[in-house]
Every structure is written in C-alpha cells, then in structure tokens.
Amino acid sequence: MRRIQDPMSAKPKFENDIFISYSHLDNKPLSEKEDFEWITEFTNNLSKLLENYLGREPNIWRDNRGIRPNQDFVAKIEKALPQSAVMVPIFTPRYIESEWCEIELISFINPDQAQLDLVINDQFRVFKVIKTPLRDYEFPLKIQNATGYKFFQIDNDDYVQEFNKSMYPELRTAYFKRLDRLAQDISNLLLELPDVQGQENPTQAADSGKPTVYLSTTGEDIRHRYFQLRKELIDEGYRVIPNQELNGSLKESTDLVENWMAEAQLSVHIFGEEYSGKAKMQNEVSAQAVQNRELQRIIWIPKPVLDEAKKGEESTLDPVQVTFLDGLLNTEEMQAGASVISDTIEALSNNLLRRLKKLEQPPEPSKAKEDAPSAEESVPQYVYIIATKEDKDAVKPWKKLISEQGYEVRISRWKKDGSLDQEAYERALIDYESVLVYWGDGDEYWMEDTLDAINKSLTGPNQLRKMAFEARGVLIAEPELDEKEDFTSSSFHVMHSQGTPSAENLAPFFTDLKAAKS
Question: Could you give the number of structural domains in the chain?
C-alpha cells in the first residue's frame, strides 16, 4: 500500500522535484507536417499523473528552449541539478552520444553535488526512461542497477515498436500503463524524502537484524504484484533484493543473481501469464542455491493462471509458459524444496511475514529440542471440513487421510433436527487455519451459500477472521451433477474425489498446508 501523507507535509525541500534530462533531437516531430513532440507530451503526462499521487503540482525542470550549448548552459544546470530530488534521463542513442546530456547525468550522480545519497531506501533517485533499446554497457556504471522503464516493445518479428502515437497509436494504452508505473514509483520516493533528509545514513532503512529477501523480477502482466509485495516487505523493515531491473545479457544477469542470492535467507518467485526467461533463470539459481545451503523458497502462481495452465493444449496462455509452469509443478529439480502457493496475494503476504518472523527468532539449543518440543511445535494446525449431514460417513476417510498427514481435523456439526450448528460453524471459521468444503450430496445452492459464508468471514462489515486461511479447497465427490462439472473458483482449490482417498487428490491443498507449516 502507498503511504498516505498530508500533501503539505510531503512537500520536498528541493527546488525541483524532477530534472528531466534528454536530447533535443529526440523531441523533434517525425515530419514537418506533424507537431507531436514526444518529450513534451511525456513531461506533461507525467506531471498530471504525479499531481494525482502527490496531491500538488510537481516542480519539473526541463530545458525546453534549446539553450545548449550557449546561454551559460553549464551555470544553469549546476544550479538546477543539486536542487532536484529526482532525475529522469530519457535514454536513446542520441542521448548517449550527447556531450551535454552526459554532463547533466554525471553532475547529478556525482556525490559531491548532491544533498542526498544516490540511493534512498534501496531506491535510486535516477529513474531511467528507455525510449529506444540500448545495450547494458551503454548505461553509466553507477546507474546500471537503477530500474529502467521501457517505452517500447519488441514485436513477434523482433522489431522495435516505440510507444509513439505517431507511429503506433495502438500502443497508447501500453504507454500510459508504463508512465503510470513510473509516476507511482517517483511519487513514493518523493513522499519519503521529508523523512530521510537529515538522517545520518538514509540508505540503510532495513533493520540489519532482519532477514534479507530475494524477490524475483517478473513478467509484465504480474509486475504490479511484485511492487506490492516489495513495498510491504520494505515497510516491515526487511531488506529486499535486487533493487534493479536485469537489463544485461542472460550471462551478466545470472552472475548478478548468484551474488545476490548468496545474501538472501528467503527467495520468492512470482509467475503469471507471460513467460520470462529471466524469471525462469532466477528460479534456477535459487533452486541450485538451496542444494548447498539453507534457503527458504516460495513459488507463487495465482490460481486463475494455474488453472488455465493445467488445461494444457487447450490453454489460452502462451504455450511456452504452459510448458514452463508444467515443469515447475512436476519437476523436482525446478521446484527444489520450494513451497508452491496459489492462494490470494494477501495469503502470500501473510505466509511471507510468518516465515520471516520465524527466521528472526534465534535458533533454540539442540538439547532443548531433544528434551521437549517448542511451544510452536506443540500447537496443532487445524483443518475444518464442511459437509452436509448426509455426507458425514463419506467424509470420514478424508478426515483420516488429512489426520495422517499431521493435522487436526474437525467436521461441521449438526443439531438433532438436522440443521447446522450455526454457533459452532461460525466459531470454526474464526479459529481454524484451513477449510475444506466437501461437495457430495449438497446442491449448487448449498455450495454457493457455503462459499459465500467463508468469504464473508474474511471481508466486509461482518468480517470474523483477522488472517486469511492458510489453505482453502473444494473437494467434489459423487453424485455427478452438471453444476459440479462446470464449477470453478478463483479463491479455492477445486479438486475431485477419484475412488479411494489419496494425498494426490488433495495435492494443491496439502501444498498450501505445508507451506504454512514450514
């Protein structure tokens, strides 16, 4: 969540919020018949978006009169740059070749010319806008690790398509999505500046006694979840790495990831609809690291994505991603000790925080562990099974199966008149960690009412629970119904009873249970 501040208290102590550095040649229209100036429109759009997030009009310094290289240009930038909280350089081949652009950039990142460090709370004060593709080594070494915002895409024939409405008007939405992400990241940093100014060491926001989390970079479709988790973890005082995009070659990126992974106690890997070779590589590095040392691993695949991937050839996902996710779920080498989670982002966040709290606790002496179980080990983990009274006997083998896996199991209760014991039911939804709905005799309306009751325990004015369920599932059993065949859920694992009860039938449910237990 973004931190909310009074707009007046958030006003920076800099004369300028942003210094936009660019080559004037990149602002020229494509032809004499056009008046579209990319840099000018970019600046205006960014200003309007920032005003939404800051609650005030941002102060943006941009040379829009073409004063270079005369009119005492050096004196002007020497005054403007130290008084700018953030720099947004717009990288193109022309920018790299420009002597004056280089002067601006070097002047900003030179620590002798800055009021603050270049990196604040693991965030660079330089936000790289990449208008045209560049090779990694073309960026100055000091900001190679800064996040880059690509305002282009590569088409299926490997040609570059810039987010330029004159050439590709159909990419207008993609342009604004990328710009909005840039605006949010800049505003978050600007809102933090009043807090960090005056601190002796503002770059060290994370508590040195807390674990370090490696949060893998992701595909574009799920990137917003990456930033959401990253912000939550940093707000809790954890150090989150890497603090950059992986813009280099696969070999260069792999070397960097291996070095970062060595610093982490927990690695988190998020996979969505889009295939990402670098996301795959980061999982491979983590899977290799866990073979050589203690490293906790979590893989999160949102349930809708997971369900779609399981359709195989009928899936609407990219076939490459379907193949990758299938391997991730079914190949021991790719999973390598990771807990695979497909619950909500809130459940993932809760899972991460529980794990990190445990990692913060000092290890108990080995003798104490031998003599008596710890308090945490003695606390049972409960699974609540909801079923109709008619399915009471059918549920018993499943209760036994789950109990044999090390969990305490409770089944919904009924009164003598056959009605559900509502008081016990509501108490169970509050107290028990996980819930499994057994759909046998009940009709579709019973199922809908049951899921609605569970979901209402988590949200709304009548919210009962303070934490998300560690595992949620629906087990579909006989008799066969058309409604059962068509049933899907975005928040519950949907599993099918097939003959004799087995752990395989409840595999995704058990995966979530084990993840919460570890």
Answer: 3
Q: What residues pair up with 215 in beta bridges, in sequence order? A: 268
Task: Judge if the upstream peptide bond of residue 69 is cis by omega within 30 degrees of 0.
Answer: yes
The Cα 239–Cα 232 span in angstroms is 11
Residue type, 266: L
**Does 148 share its domain with 233?**
no
- CB contact at 8 A, 506 and 401: yes
**What backbone phi and psi angles, to 5 degrees, belong to 339?**
-90, 125
| Residues 6 or more apart whose Cβ sits within 8 Å of residue 255 | none
Q: Which domain holds residue 487?
A: 382-517
Q: Is the pLDDT of residue 367 over 60?
A: no
Residue the block writes with tokens 């809102």: 191
Closest to 282 (Cα-Cα) out of 250, 308, 310, 304:
250
pLDDT in tens, 11-52: 446 888 999 999 989 998 887 777 789 999 999 999 999 998
| Residue 359 CB burial class (10 angstroms; 0-12, 13-18, ≥19) | middle
Same domain, 169 and 22: yes
Instruction: Please check whether residue 448 lies inside any domain of the structure.
Output: yes
CATH of the domain at 396: 3.40.50.2300
Q: Is 122 left (phi over 0), alpha (psi -120 to 50) or beta?
A: left
The number of angstroms, rounded, from the C-alpha of 96 to the middle of its chain's C-alpha atoms is 32
Say if residue 319 is exposed, middle or buried (CB neighbours under 10 Å; 0-12, 13-18, 19+).
exposed
Rounded Cα gap, residues 383 and 434, in angstroms: 5
Q: Supply 138's token pair.
A: 């073309």
Quick: pLDDT tens for 400-448: 999 988 899 999 988 777 778 888 888 888 888 899 999 998 888 888 8
